[in-house]
Fold each of these.
Amino acid sequence: MDGISDLIIYEGSKLLNKYSDLNSAYIDEKSVAVFKHVNFGISFDSGNNLKVLSLKDADKLTLPETHSEVSKLLDLYESGKQIPVDLLTSSTVTISDLSKTKASYMRPLLNGLQGLILGVVRSKINLFEIYATFDHRISSGLTVARFLEELKSRIMSYYPLSEEKSCAFCRKSIVEEVASGNRGFIRIELPDGEEVSACRNCFDRTST
Amino acid sequence: MNQEEIRTFLSKLTNTELTNDSVLTLSSAQKARLYNWCQENHVNINLQKINGRFSINDLSDETDLLKSNNSKGLEHKINNLSGASALPANIGVDIQSINELFPISLESDLKDREDFKSIFTIRELSYAQSRIDMRQTLTGIFAAKEAIVKCQYGEINLLDIEVLPNNFGKPSYKNFLVSISHSGEYAIAIAMNNGSQNGHSSSLQDNLLPYFFVDDNIAKKKSFFSSRIRILDLFFIVIILVIILFK
């Protein structure tokens, strides 16, 4: 199962048009800036070079375009070339994805003049958790809770229903597994004690 | 709600500038969207008249109004709107034009639009959004829903029909065999009822049958086995006839 950053960026951007409080910045006691566009900042870190690159007008992109644009940003980051200043400064909201690490909890810090940052971790093999830090001077906890609730239901809609059995690693369904000549899934216990179903291919792999 | 607003909506729906005298014919998808719009805006129009050629003036016939606000969403007599036969069939087919169904590009948040939420489930929308051509995919799904409606008994809410690809990438819905094809700006779908009317899948094997018994070895074996049964039947009939004749 791959990460869910592109889904979070795609659906989150659409939702931020509805929850505009979260796509804004606190200026002073009298003024709050509401951004017209959703520029999703994506944090990249290869170890000692943390950068947040902006995916501009993310709310106008389709999902395949979002996926492609995020890949381009990653390529740019990894190329070591000079990154245009506007890509480093124009984000209106940020996502920090640590789901490829063993982190099971995170509390992201707000980035620059922004009102929301999302943090993603993967607490179990097929369980992602999204944490949000927001500026309480602009938005309320209830708004953020509703935003996260809606975001979760939208992301879940891209995956098979829970009763449809699938491999915990590659999402292959049990129907496909049987069709490929195997008798069914294998229940395995992971080092952390979690029990999951795995297809024959994923069971034979030495690591996830 | 006045004629002007109906005219504006129909102009957007058909992507043409209409006058109140313009004669038009709506596809089943357009009828469904018009019906839905009427419900949202509490507009009473004569739905019987939108089944053929009509003008906007025809819709304001006050003597024959149907109360559209008595029901919610698309829980309507879909047979009347889709042109499906009142009698159930085991097979249904439907063709839709992408440009008729979605005259404009879909940039906005579909999951927050009532007109889309009343026709497509969130999972269908997500599936379409993950595809390169969202309009084409949604048109295909809509055609499949309409084809399934033509196979069913009674009134059906389009939201109760969820057409999604199965694990082999083929469109599926409960006990129906569904096939969708696209060409240019058209999508066509055919659906066949593959069992009980309630549409619940009975077993894994049942689900596998439609896709595995088409042209693989099992299908050949099955067909060979069936032909052997027919040959044996014939053989026994001949023997019985011979016995009868000799008696």
Amino acid sequence: MSTLSNKFTSFWELGEASGTRVDAVVASANDLTDNNTVTQATGKVGNAAQFTLANSEYLSRASNSSLQTGDIDQTFCAWVYMDSTAAGMNMIILAKNDNAVFVDYSWFWRQSTNRFQFNIYGTGIALAASASADTFGAPSTATWYFVVAGFDSVNNQAFISVNNGAENTGAQAVAPITTSAAFTIGANAEPSAFWDGRIDQVGLAKALLTADEKTFLYNGGAGRSWAEIVTGPGGSSILRGPTKSGLIEGRLIG
Amino acid sequence: MATLAEIRNAVDAQLAVIWTKVQTWEANYLAVHGGYWQGIINPSVIPADNNEVALNLARRPTDQIEDWAAANLTLPATLPMAFQIDVHNGPSGRGYTGTVYVKVLGNTYMRKQGVGAHSTTAAWLLVRPA
């Protein structure tokens, strides 16, 4: 295992055609439920999950401690591709957010600003910290983007970057908390704010990634499979978890 | 104007009738197709303040042939609520969740009723304040 792969609590390659999406991190086993038949399309690495907004499609997992973050270092990464930018509504990449009572974090494309944004929340759905990818600017449809976002608990700020570019940050106002909201990809847990397009190679790390690790994951715009993440940088040749290319240590994904 | 409680009670009563038909339809659909039937939110705009809104029985997801008309739920022509059925396929198996939405004085409320794996049952909840 590499130093980088050990940082991930969960990693979803999202290459399956439909049904359950397998968590490559065997110890966490946060396999995701398919809601309203999320399909498959060509991804950044192999195949990706294809979300059709009109069909209210999303992936979900009931809350558990491994998906809860709160006031700790945390990093989310994903490749995202928008088929359209929905009129009048945000589109969620991933969240723990029931849109009513319980909200931990929400990572989305914000309609009003046309930016990728990461929000983390405190008690009473108070915004704890927020970062908007203003340096990168407006994303386009039909284009893959590597987006990294999270929260730095030492410097007390949210951060976000696109395509391994410069980070935007936002200072903490109140302490982030954990809640029982379900974890979702492609919508919030209400569900609403559906994604329209593809999402691939989603990682959740309860740690900050170094600049070298982000550069490795970005790979000049080509992305990385879980197998590549496990073996490097600084990894061994012993693979764990499923890969898009086959069976590793007993877990197989399509 | 009807109170929030009156509107919720009226919707609960209507849902009780529809839900029985939904369960029969879903059981039959599962037996034939191996998965549950998805019902796209209908009407597409959430009715407000107990006003009845016409249903569109032709609504369906792009990847499913059967629309609301095919489900033959003998729904009324209009409803004071929006209704949808989400389908789930996950590690514990399959299930479905029916959700109703009403809007009262600008506030959007929802209630959920689920069957099977990964489904949700929840009492009335304010989800989008005015």
Amino acid sequence: MTTNTKKILIAEDDPFLVKFYKAKLEQKGFSVHIEGSGENILPIIKAEHPDLFVLDLGLPGKNGFEILQEVRANAETKNTPVFVVTKLAGEKDRKRTEELGATLYLCKMETGFEELIKDIERYLNTGHSS
Amino acid sequence: MTLISKEDAFEFLKSHHVMTLATVSEDGKPHATALLYVIDDDFSMYFVSHAESHKVKNVMQNNLVSLAVWEHKKMSVQVNGEARLMEDQKTIDEVLTRIAEAGAGEEDHFYPPILKIRGQEYALFKIHPMRVRCLDLRSDQINVPETPFIDIQI
């Protein structure tokens, strides 16, 4: 295990997937905060100052696009790197997340979970998303 | 033939996290699947699956299951038992965490099949063991055909 203590906020409502995310990333030395609803993301980012925010667009409570827009519009949170993860595979959604300022867009149907973990690890260790 | 104790069998099952689970469909068709599990001190074992999976449908209409865990040069364990759906949310949350941590604690590139299947509704089952049998694979000795497996009293 490395001594990396970078913080990751993961907004995801799949109850098993989030636990796997958390366990896998904590074993790699990261600190992981899980949030299952989209309602309180902004205050959490302000309080936690995560090094990376992983956002599932299909969260209950608030639309993921709206969350991303809010994060980018707020002076305190606008520079937070955001990986958008979604089941939506459309080019239109990819373009919209890019326009809203997503750092990386990953489609769950195209990208495996293993790739996402690698992308997170790579980004937090090197600052490069791919 | 060397003897396998209840503790040996338990430690073996506790040190592994992947089993092959067999269920039977309503029309009698067997269905085997590899999946993650965790075990309690009393030999109760837990597994999670997508709620709409074949194994869940099977168990909901016939909760008798059979499972096997094997490792070369160590042991092969077979368990027959009854699977019961867990409904207490606190227990579900705790056990899902244990299963996720068990899976995540395997090799770095280990990602269980459940992560490759779409769906967010999960069903957690507790297997109450009725019979546990072990085959000792620690020595090169060939076991006597009449008594290859040792019954573990639980």
Amino acid sequence: MGVAVASRPGAAVRFCAADPADPALLLWSATQTVEATGDRPLGGGAILIAADLDEVTLPAILLCDGRTVCAATAQPDRAPKIMRLARRPRALFSLCVDTRTGMDLDMGGAIRRALEADGRIGGEMADDLETCLHEAISNALVHGNLGLGSQLRETPEAYLQYAALLEERLGDPTRGGRLVYIRCAALRRGVAIAIGDEGGGIPGGPPKISLGDASARCSGRGLALIRTMARDLRHRDGGRLCVMRFGGDGA
Amino acid sequence: MEHQISVSGDTATVRLSGRLTFKDHRAYRDLLAEMLAHKAKVYELDLSKVEHIDSAGIGMLMISKQKAEAEQGSVVIVSPPPAVRRVLEVAKIDEILEIRG
């Protein structure tokens, strides 16, 4: 079994080939002991399936040479879909996790750090990108995959029930096992990030609330923040896919 | 997100640290109950150690304001770091909640 070790400093992550017939398909697991034979850096386009991701390993994996795709899911039946997403061309990296994992990981921070280390973003734009990522990822996880509307946070009374409902939905194998996928592509100037979920979409399209309209409310300002901070924002697939662009002529 | 509460006279100071995001609903719900139990007139939410806030975190600040005002109290935001302040200003929260420092 071939073994690859990330060569970039600070990315001490070890991989093994998941499929000997496909050396670009790599497996990483924090709980798996891998015998280091034939060490080599990750090649471009390598695909990584990772389990047991945590706050330390996720940024390291995103920073690996080869722009790996990684997925954290304990559901083998989802592998074909993850592979289809992973093999789409021209991604800097893709990340695909189930909802329970997504709620545990700081994916927005990890992606920000990876793009900063790569010299693609910096300064206030990096802050804005992280904020927008958090908003889009939380929309995908909470509103999309878990099916919880933001109106549930609108009053103090409803808010007090919200945390319990969130945990109940996370415990539902169907909802908690839905995937969220994030794909980051380089633009001539800046980056484009797409975030998709497996929820019910946004009936009637995304709300057009402005930050002025939302200022006194307790919820509903996430998309308005993205519209203000990103260069642009588009929705596709009935609202299940959100595409944001950063850098270039705008933000 | 973690917090510490200290009380001086009619003012309760809540020092928040870490990240204030959509993952902190349960922690914030507990914090809100603990904070309001002090029956203060002014609740200072010290954000100087908060690394990141998102729209759900802003919603938590707004819930705090509503709950405090329902009990004749008020909420003041204290010392947000630049990145947190920027999100609050972009969201126009500085027009609704007093921000000091």
